[in-house]
Amino acid sequence: MNKFVISTTKDNVVVNSSDQSIIYIFENVKGYEEEIYDLFLDNKMSIPQLENMINSWGGKLKTVTLKHLINNYYKSLE
User: Fold this and answer.
1) Average pLDDT of the chain, as a whole number
2) Tens of pLDDT along 2-39?
3) What is the distance between the alpha carbons of residues 52 and 16, in angstroms, rounded to a whole number?
4) DSSP element (H, E) containing 70
5) Tens digit of pLDDT for each residue in 41-72?
6) DSSP string spanning 4-61?
7) What burial letters (b/e) apply to 5-20, b meaning 16+ CB within 10 Å?
């Protein structure tokens, strides 16, 4: 089955239309959200560097592709 995906914000602003989009999940980073967001906007460090920094704060960074989430969604419907 071929799927066409469009991701939007709650205000219907298109974020990305690729099912290869990566979703970043941050755990235990309370108080660092703005700094992390700024690092993404400025593209100042690689993902491994960011992950090391998150780990040093006692947090975790997990990634998953939109394609993986969609495939799992369809599997759950079977």
Assistant:
1) 85
2) 667 778 888 888 877 677 788 889 999 988 899 888 88
3) 27
4) helix 66-77
5) 887 788 899 899 999 999 999 989 888 888 89
6) ---EE-TT--EEE--TT-EEEEEES-TT-HHHHHHHHHHT-S-HHHHHHHHHHTT-EE
7) eeeeeeeeeeeeeebe
